[in-house]
Amino acid sequence: MKSRVKATGIDKEHQEILLKVGQIPKHIAIIMDGNGRWAKKRGLPRIAGHHEGVNSVRDIVEVCGQLDVKYLTLFAFSKDNWSRPKKEVSLLMRLLLHAIRDERDKLHSNGVVLKTIGNISELPTAVQDELIEATEITKNNDGLILILALSYSGKSDITNAIKSISKKVADGKLDIEKIDDEIIKMNLSTKNYPDPDLLIRTSGEMRISNFLLWQIAYSEFYITNLLWPDFRRNALYQAIESFQSRERRFGMVSG
Ligand code: IPE
Ligand code: IPE
Ligand code: MG
Question: Where in the chain is the domain with CATH 3.40.1180.10?
Fold first, then answer.
């Protein structure tokens, strides 16, 4: 069962070219940045940018499904974002709650599987409940796996992995000499997913901002000046086109 909303018209043409030219990244991760600046440019409150950003999420999720991208990880709220003004945080949480509630049925009928990474228990209970329901409803789908990074910190992910590995060593269940890349991977919150092939950041910032750290060892980076609310399907096609023009060497020499 593939995505049930098929592309049409110019969209279909764009997608067919991408599919013909090269590989579609199996896993795309996106740092969705620039909502505040988008709003500021229009003299609007920051939340208006977050609001418009949800429309970009909807568009990108739909197109990823059509292109048969297997995994899409979206950095929606970082652990460090809790330090923003209380008002912005509470409006963001409300927006998140409504977005999940409004989109859930459409995601489900499009075959999307919703997952989360990050410290979900720090989110308001009402948001947690929506997330639990949406992940439960969509869990047996076989389309795009959409992973929302919420209250996520790449450093915390690694710290937690170190704690659980240390515990196994202390309990005599794991030999120190057996610790390798695979064991570390299996103790991260992303253990069920392959590493991202393509990492996109919008709004032009050249930094990771505590998103995935371990997992991006060989991801291709694509940074665009577009602000997240302006990042729609055509911008994604461009990012994938750029990805397809790269030579991934993984430390080896040209083949
Ligand atoms: C990204 O947009 C959304 C979140 C971090 C929640 P920002 O809110 O960071 O927007 P800018 O970077 O201030 O423009
Ligand atoms: C990264 O953006 C977090 C998300 C997109 C959710 P930020 O706006 O929080 O990052 P900085 O502050 O520019 O590094
Ligand atoms: Mg930002």
Answer: 9-152+195-244
